[in-house]
Design a protein that fits this description.
By secondary structure, this protein is mostly helical. The protein has 5 helices and 2 strands; from the N terminus they run αββαααα.
Length: 176
């Protein structure tokens, strides 16, 4: 009974390490799961079920079968998560062709206006790039990340346009 308790404790610790990935959608290359793709939490639940089946076995050959299945499931899940994380790291990052002044707020109003217009063009480029990436992306987790970046870029564009309007008004009043 003590061995069972230790085994369950270790299983829970191993599975707890995967908790941060529970909502990630992955594809597993293994016949040891009932399906090939889904959320990490689905695969964790299947591993827990296999562990329960292993603990309830009286026959040694069945115990060996479930022990091997459990190991293969862990390996397959860890491999799929690693592959998913590697793909996220390898995603191409947007590179703007524009160069900006180091401290835009110290520039004169007219120079600042030029910099903000340049920034708006860069944000428009980034928006187009993000939308194209989102359209071509198949991984749901990466698609969601791109959608978040689109929202953030849209917010930054709005702020930039507001700053341009304010500077144009300021320059108009200075001319009068």
């Amino acid at each position: 009974m003590m061995q069972k308790h230790r085994f369950l404790t270790q299983m829970k610790l191993n599975l707890a390490d995967l908790a941060s990935f529970s909502e990630n959608k992955i594809t597993v290359s293994s016949t040891y799961f009932s399906k090939q793709s889904g959320l990490v939490k689905f695969f964790v639940a299947e591993i827990e079920k296999t562990a329960e089946q292993l603990l309830n076995q009286k026959d040694v050959s069945y115990s060996e079968f479930y022990a091997e299945k459990l190991i293969k499931q862990f390996d397959a899940l860890n491999s799929a998560i690693s592959k998913d994380q590697q793909q996220k790291k390898n995603t191409v990052q947007f590179q703007s062709s524009f160069k900006f002044s180091a401290n835009i707020h110290t520039l004169s109003s007219s120079k600042r206006l030029q910099e903000y217009r340049k920034a708006l063009r860069a944000l428009n480029e980034k928006m187009s790039w993000l939308m194209e990436q989102n359209y071509n992306e198949e991984n749901e987790a990466l698609k969601q990340e791109l959608q978040n970046q689109i929202l953030e870029t849209e917010y930054r564009k709005d702020k930039c346009m507001k700053a341009i309007e304010d500077l144009e008004q300021e320059l108009l009043f200075k001319q009068k």
